[in-house]
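DM from R.C. (forwarded with permission)

"hey, sorry to bug you on a friday — could you get me a structure for this? deadline for the figure draft is monday and I only need the backbone to look sensible"
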Amino acid sequence: WMARFEVKGKRTDKVKDLSKGNQQKIQLICALIFQPRLLILDEPFSGLDPVNAGLLEDGIRALQESGAAIIFSSHDMSNVEALSDHLVMLKNGRTVLAGTVEEIRDSYGRTRISLERPSLDEAALRALPGVASVVRHGEHYLLPLTDPAAGRDIFQAVSQGGYIAEFSQQAPDLDEIFRMKVGEADA
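My reply, with the result:
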């Protein structure tokens, strides 16, 4: 198990003397080693770098594939999206979302467009009907939409010069949905 999770240290080291990431690996090994049928994890990926998070995710997936039920809490929606068959989002102890990741995302509609190297500049993108805003990261643009039906016209406008490296109209990811739901005023 120590080799599988690439724990740095010796078997005789005290857990308190290990790095935070290695401490978390040891804690997860203690939970996984007996192949439990039910596993409850609280923020298992907190503070881990991507390599160690990937190792832990692989361990959780292996247990999941063996048929174990796994309940975990997390504020990192990428882990939730990657590992969850079903999720429940709570706010102030109340359920605000429940379902599969696909059901939840699909319920929000395809309200964002991801573009790479569009033929239009940022100002022209912002002026397109149905575009709520433009978020630029280098040559990549994210366009939140006020109306998902505008996607076809936006595609025509941004691809008028021919080739476009990327155009994807999709539902918001869980991170965006989390921000929307947590930011809502209590009903």
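R.C.: lifesaver. The first strand starts at residue 38 and ends at 42.
me: no worries. The mean pLDDT is 87.
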